[in-house]
Automatic annotation (TrEMBL):
InterPro entries: C-type_lectin-like (IPR001304), C-type_lectin-like/link_sf (IPR016186), CTDL_fold (IPR016187). Gene3D superfamilies: Mannose-Binding Protein A, subunit A (3.10.100.10). It comes from Penaeus vannamei. Residues 116-226 form the C-type lectin domain. This is C-type lectin domain-containing protein.
Length: 238
């Protein structure tokens, strides 16, 4: 099915709906300026109606086999409400969750008052937003991450998206791509700053994950993955 909206041409393959534009949440309702409310026969119909007004969010309430579609032109907040399936525009969702823009990406550092996480839990938390872990592409990106650490958190450790779980000394990014295949290559990586001796040579079997340490000039050191530190910086998917 092709949906035609001024300036937009999209193909909807099935009722999972336009994943490029909207993010699905069960039991959460968007609250804001309502464009219209209407009973519909399917989620697909509600999504199509939403696109006709370029809505920021649509709520699909499911009660006794009846579907009520409410489209919102703006989002003020999110509330918990059973029987509701809501689809938020990525922009609206990320703004409400506290993301900011950095180099055309939505990015966010976890609230420092929340419990600290293990390395794996930090990765899982970013993916649940929905999103991914922010990966620095340049030394400027790394220094920006350090500045976020300096301004948002107290002294301590912030997990970084590198690990050598699979092969000791061979560090890979959280997405599986390799940043180095030897200590020498790690030391020469252009987008990160290692603490002296930590680029593979100072690693141990027990320490497979990497963190930025405030106590060593905000450089990278290896840590145990099951320690709890400040979470990694997250990046939005859209």
């Amino acid at each position: 099915m092709r949906l035609l909206v001024p300036g937009i041409v999209m193909t909807v393959a099935d009722a999972t709906i336009i994943s490029e534009l909207y993010v699905h949440r069960d039991g959460i309702r968007g609250v804001g300026e309502i464009a219209f409310t209407k009973e519909v026969s399917s989620q697909l119909e509600c999504a199509a109606l939403c696109l006709t007004v370029l809505c920021a969010c649509y709520n699909l309430e499911v009660r006794n086999s009846t579907l009520t579609c409410t489209t919102l032109s703006t989002i003020r907040e999110f509330t918990e409400q059973p029987f509701t399936r809501s689809f938020f525009s990525r922009k609206g969702l990320y703004q409400q969750l506290g993301f900011i823009r950095y180099k055309e990406q939505w990015v966010m550092a976890r609230d420092p008052t929340l419990p600290r996480l293990t390395w794996d839990d930090s990765v899982a938390w970013c993916r649940s937003l929905p999103g991914s872990v922010f990966l620095p592409q340049t030394l400027e990106d790394f220094d920006w991450m350090v500045e976020i650490f300096r301004t948002k958190y107290e002294d301590g450790y912030m997990f970084f998206p590198l690990n050598d779980k699979e092969k000791e000394g061979d560090f890979v990014w959280v997405n599986g791509s390799c940043v180095c295949v030897s200590p020498a290559a790690a030391k020469n990586a252009t987008q990160i700053r290692w603490h002296d001796g930590q680029e593979g040579a100072g690693n141990t079997i027990e320490d497979d994950c990497v963190a930025i340490e405030s106590y060593h000039d905000y450089t990278l050191r290896v840590h145990a993955c099951d320690h709890t530190h400040y979470a990694m910086i997250c990046a939005g998917d859209g």
